[in-house]
Amino acid sequence: MNARGSLDQRWRWLVLVASVCAVPLGGRVASSLGQEAAKVPPDASPAPTELLRSHPFDRITLLDDSVILVEPVSPRPLPPVEPDKSKSRGRGGEPKIDPEGNIGLPGEPSRFKAFEAKKQAERGPDQQITVHLAKETATGRGDARDFIIKRAHIKNIEYFEDMLLAEGESLAKARKYNQAFERYLRVQTRNPEWPGLADHVDALLFAEGSQALSDGEGERGLRLLRELLARRRDYPGLLDKISAAYAARINRAFDLGLYPLARRVHHELEQLVPEHAEVKSLREKFQAAAKTRVEVGGSASSAERLDALTDALRIWPTLEGAEAEYVAAFEALTTLDVAVVDVPSPLGPWVRSPADARVNRLVYLPILADDSEEAKQGQAPGQLASELESTDLGRRLLIRVKPDIPWSDGSRSASAVDVARALIDRCDPRNPDKYQARWAELLERVAPRDDGAVELRLARPLLKPSYWLGEPVGPAHAGPDGRIFVSHQERPLVGDGPFALASATPHMIELRAATESAGNETPPPPPPPKIQRLREFRYDRPSGALAAFNRGDVAMLERVPPDQVPALGSSPDVKLGRYAQPSVHVLALDGRTPALRNRMLRRALSHAVDRKALLEEAVLKRAASDPDAPADGVFPKTSYADAPGVQPLEYNPVLAAALAALAKGELGKEAVALKLEYPAIAEVEAVIPRLVEAFRLARIEVEPVGLSESQLESELRAGRRFDMAYRVLRCDEPVLDAGLMICPGYDAPPSANALASAASPRIVQLLLELDRAAEWPSARGLVVQIDRELRDELPVIPLWQVTDHYAWRGRLTGPPEVANQLYQGIETWEITPWVAKDPWMSQ
Question: Most buried residue, 116, 422, 537, 824, by CB count within 10 Å?
Answer without folding.
Answer: 422
